[in-house]
UniProtKB/TrEMBL annotation:
This is DUF1793-domain-containing protein. The keyword Signal applies. Residues 1-20 form the signal peptide. It comes from the Eukaryota. Keywords: Signal. The lineage of its organism: Eukaryota, Fungi, Dikarya, Ascomycota, Pezizomycotina.
Amino acid sequence: MFALKTTWFALSLFAQNAFGEIYRHNHTQSYSANLLQESMDWMDMYYDSDRAYLFSLDATALTHDTRASVWYAAGLLARNENDDAEQAVRIVRNVVGAQFKNESLQWFGNYQIYPEEPTVGTKQYQPSIYNTWDPNWRGFIGTTFVVMLEEFPHLIPEDIQEYMIESLFNTTIGDSYRVGGVDDDNLYPAYSNPSIMRAFVSGWVGRRTNDSNMTTAGEAYAKEIIDLFKRDNTLSEFNSGTYAGVSLFALTLWAKYMPETSLMGQYGAEMIRYTWTSLGELYNANLRNVAGPWDRAYGFDMNRYLSILALQMWTLVGKEKAPVNAKPYLMGHKNDFAISPLISILAPYHNTLVPPTTLSSLHAFPETHTVNTSAFSPPYDIYPRNITAWLSPDLTIGAESFSETVVGGPAKNPSSFNPAVIQWARKDGSVGWMSLYAQVYALDVDVGDGYLEVSYPQGNSSSHFSFLVGTSGWGGKRDVASWADVEGLRVNVSGTVDLEYEVSFNGLRGGKGKVVNDFEFWNFTYGMPEGGMGVPRVRLEVEVV
Ligand SMILES: *[C@@H]1O[C@H](CO)[C@@H](O)[C@H](O)[C@H]1NC(C)=O
Ligand SMILES: *[C@@H]1O[C@H](CO)[C@@H](O)[C@H](O)[C@H]1NC(C)=O
Ligand SMILES: *[C@@H]1O[C@H](CO)[C@@H](O)[C@H](O)[C@H]1NC(C)=O
Ligand SMILES: *[C@@H]1O[C@H](CO)[C@@H](O)[C@H](O)[C@H]1NC(C)=O
Ligand SMILES: *[C@@H]1O[C@H](CO)[C@@H](O)[C@H](O)[C@H]1NC(C)=O
Ligand SMILES: *[C@@H]1O[C@H](CO)[C@@H](O)[C@H](O)[C@H]1NC(C)=O
Ligand SMILES: *[C@@H]1O[C@H](CO)[C@@H](O)[C@H](O)[C@H]1NC(C)=O
Ligand SMILES: *[C@@H]1O[C@H](CO)[C@@H](O)[C@H](O)[C@H]1NC(C)=O
Ligand SMILES: *[C@@H]1O[C@H](CO)[C@@H](O)[C@H](O)[C@H]1NC(C)=O
Ligand SMILES: *[C@@H]1O[C@H](CO)[C@@H](O)[C@H](O)[C@H]1NC(C)=O
């Protein structure tokens, strides 16, 4: 076990009294049942019982979707009404039947993205990792099969169970072909969500099939993940509404299904507690958002895009208090609502691992505080990223210093890597946000009471800082030309930059460019003065008005 880092954390564990346990337990039951029901009601509308697949959630001319089908199948077993179990078995048979069976191909043991797709690897349908095939689907579908086999074996005929084990065996072999940096793959232990799933599936299948090599491989990979985590008790893929959710799901499998003889069984629960502790410290219940920085986010306001973490919060504090819209399927990135059955099935166990202090911070914002931590994603990070966040009741500022070999974070995606973020409460109850667009290899940050300072240590006179700023609330200004037009926040700017700035708009139907993660925004860009000397640096002093 890890040494406990701070005394308050140890104290909060002891503070977990019997009443707290009972209270949490009862609510988890009803909240998670409600999540299962709402998500299944929604997916029922997409189910194609002729084909035993879910139609694509994207309305792509009546094609189907493999991964959502499997998540739905897990939900069918959990619900188990009428012919639910029978339909789940039909889906599983379809998906395993179409699993890639040629051992010498890189995508061996993987699952189709959709059943209508051409054969991956033909002349007309070239293999393209993360496009025509997605290596992470082995983990997503494999872990779902394990949950089905662990939780509902009584509903799955013996021959189908064996078929699923064969499928899991192949998917584990195929997953072992993945080596970060080889064949365009990026699976390093620091790529937290799929790496945690990989270690688990390998360890679980190895034990189930008596394949000691597979068991050993799972343990060895788990050790690398754990060593990286223990450096500062953080996930490498730090603080992401979507992927912290996946990592917590996968760590729950470590904790729940792995024996004490496994490193995963030993460390899973502890890693969940630490991960929730840091998420709880960064959460602002008034804004219903986890403060930045976000390593990989699919939106800028958790109230408006659907994050997997919000589904876990739903099972902890109920839908009303979670960052989820009344109609979750209308939010940005809504297709992830399809993972709800897995979150619901595991909630009764997972939720016992959420520290009481975290649970209480999901209900109410405690008091103004600062969070200091770090995360490390080798080989992309040259040094660990240093994270600082300042949280007050109506304003949060969070940023990370980094020095990397790539632009846009380890996922090389500037749209999802948000290294410096400000969020604030607006009078109408909505949330204002701004995020520094990630355009550089290295960033230094300074964050504190009411300010954010960012600088480019490797920058020069042609550097730019672009702050993407969310649009106004329903009754607010439609046009923004200066900081004075930004709703609910007063901003003073200083630094080595040219203080004349440009404002442009990226909208759904036009403007200078396209929306990012479904969000429209105003782009405030600062350049350097003519012949500007010194390190490019800009400081924002902000105040909620
Ligand atoms: C929790 O459930 C138990 C057993 O079902 C019941 O006795 C108890 O009163 C419930 N407690 C709360 C706080 O709802
Ligand atoms: C499997 O793929 C290899 C490499 O493309 C190919 O040579 C072989 O014929 C394939 N095997 C089958 C059974 O299709
Ligand atoms: C597993 O892979 C083998 C080839 O190694 C193949 O013959 C078999 O059909 C595969 N099983 C499934 C369920 O895809
Ligand atoms: C694995 O080994 C155990 C203990 O020897 C045995 O009971 C079980 O049948 C074996 N399972 C398989 C799939 O070989
Ligand atoms: C495990 O690996 C060793 C060494 O590569 C090999 O000799 C052995 O056959 C493997 N065992 C299994 C069950 O695959
Ligand atoms: C966080 O780090 C900053 C800068 O290193 C330091 O000034 C501050 O006191 C630290 N805060 C906490 C709560 O540790
Ligand atoms: C983060 O802080 C550590 C310890 O002070 C330092 O070694 C490291 O270089 C810092 N990382 C960055 C990216 O500045
Ligand atoms: C600034 O740095 C960029 C990226 O390293 C480089 O392409 C550019 O030429 C530099 N500009 C000046 C004026 O030095
Ligand atoms: C923001 O505007 C600047 C200056 O026009 C531009 O270089 C940058 O690409 C824009 N950023 C985004 C995300 O559109
Ligand atoms: C901005 O500057 C003005 C004038 O110096 C000052 O009155 C105001 O308090 C400052 N606001 C912030 C948010 O720093």
